[in-house]
Every structure is written in structure tokens, then in C-alpha cells.
Amino acid sequence: MLLEASAALAPFASFKATAAPPGGNLLLRRPVFPAPLFGSLIGTRRRSSSLAATESGQALTGLLFQPFEEIKEELSLLPTHLDLSLARQKYADECESALNQQINVEYNNSYVYHALFAYFDRDNVALKGLAKFFKESSEEEREHAEKLMEYQNKRGGRVKLQSIVMPLSEFDHPEKGDALHAMELTLALEKLTNEKLLQLLSVAEKCNDAQLADFIESEFLEEQVEAIKRISEYVAQLRRVGKGHGVWHFDQMLLREGDAAAA
User: Fold this and answer.
1) Which part of the chain is the Ferritin-like diiron domain (predicted)?
2) Parallel/antiparallel/unpaired status of strands 14-17 and 29-32
């Protein structure tokens, strides 16, 4: 091995003469390599040996994550029964139940708003802006329910739909009129929904479910605050205009807002 290295590194080596053997006149020379170059050669061989050890599957010192060892516990937890979810992980029964309750809240809201849409769409009420607003609100609440259902399935829970309360069908009020009364009812309902969402978030935090908590905060809570602010402004405006001609102007404003958003 040394002879091969000597031949390859001959241009970098110096030669040192040795004494002639007895009775002979031939001088032998042995190569002398510079110390830095020889040290580099040794270091290269050591690195090659280390790489070979790694490739052969030998464990490195200080290894923090050993997947094939740590995965054994997760493999043992995988369900084998066909009725059990394979995706479920660290998802408490309490969170699953609370999520189903929120689905029911959203569907009830949608039902109430659909009843309000039907009322304002009557031929003897004919406030098309309010009718459109409540129809869109009903669709939005149903989308919220579906989003919660999709998340329930994503986490390995089971969606359990519950009964929906029959909403009112008449919304006229002798003092406030129908528009203000309906919008105040909407504001109260949105605030109640916000309370329900905060309760769901509290359950997620209690169960240390960071993923559910993040989902509620990012997908629902901010939007809920914006909805409360918007409807609060509608209530304030309707209180200003009273029950008369101003309601028609407010209704036209809602109609134009809907058309502008669609455009």
C-alpha cells in the first residue's frame, strides 16, 4: 500500500540516500513525503473508513431520532377493526362531542336565517336587500357546518347530526318594526355563536389539542368578530332611520352591497 502511494505521490516526494550494502555500490533511496501532505492522506483514509461505517448501517453517536425504533409504538396503536378510524391521533372524545355540538349550532343558525329570508321575500314585505342578506347568511352558516364536518372526519371523529329547532316565521315588531327586530335578533345570534366557539376552543385547550384550537382560531373566530362588527353597524343604522321610509333606503343599500360584491 505504501509503495502504491509512493508511486502516485512521487512528484511531491523528496528522496533520501541510504548507505551502500557491503561489497556493493548501489545507493538506495526512500521517499520522504512532506508532513502536511502525509497527514492529509491519513485524514482522507480515516474519513473514508467513517463513511463506510455509516453506509454499513452502524449507528452514529449522538443520534436523536431513531425512526424504526420509535415507530414501533405507533404501529402497535394502529387499529385493526374496520369500524375504527386509522387517521385518529390524540383526538379526545370530549373534543369530538363538542365539535358535533358546534355543527348543530351552525345548522340551527342557517335554519333561522333561511326563515328570515323567506319572511323578507314575501310579496307583502318585499325587502329584497334584507332577503338577499339573510339568504347569503343562511348559506354561509351551512358552509360553516360543512367545514366542521370535514374537520371532524379529518381527525377521525364521527359526525352525529342532531335535531334542529323550528324557527319563527313572523318577525314583525310593534315598536321596532321587522327590519330592526330581525337585525337585533341576528346580532344576538352571532354573539351567542361566538360564545359557543369560545367554549369549543376552551375544550380544545383543556384537552391539549393544539390542532383543533388552531383550526377554530384561524377559520372561525376572526370571521365571527368581523360579522359582529358588521351587524352592529346595521343595527345602529336601522335605529337611526326608524320604521318608515328609511328602512326602504337601508334595504336598497344592502341590495347594492350584494351586487357590488358579486361584481
Assistant:
1) 89-242
2) antiparallel
In tens, the pLDDT along 101-147 reads 999 999 999 999 999 999 999 999 999 999 999 999 999 999 999 99
Is 141 known to sit in a ligand binding site? yes
Among 12-16, 124-128, 153-157, 235-239, where is mean pLDDT lowest? 12-16
Q: What domains lie within the chain, and their CATH numbers?
A: 93-262 (1.20.1260.10)
**Cβ-count burial 69-104 (b if 16+ within 10 Å, e if not):** eeeeeeeeeeeeeeeeeeeeeebbeebbebbbebbb
Q: Is 145 exposed, middle or buried (0-12, 13-18, 19+ CB in 10 A)?
A: buried
Was 190 annotated as part of a binding site? yes
Asked whether residue 224 is marked as a ligand-binding residue, the answer is yes
CA dist 149 and 142 (Å) reads: 11
Q: C-alpha grid cell for residue 138? A: 343562511
The one-letter amino acid at 160? K
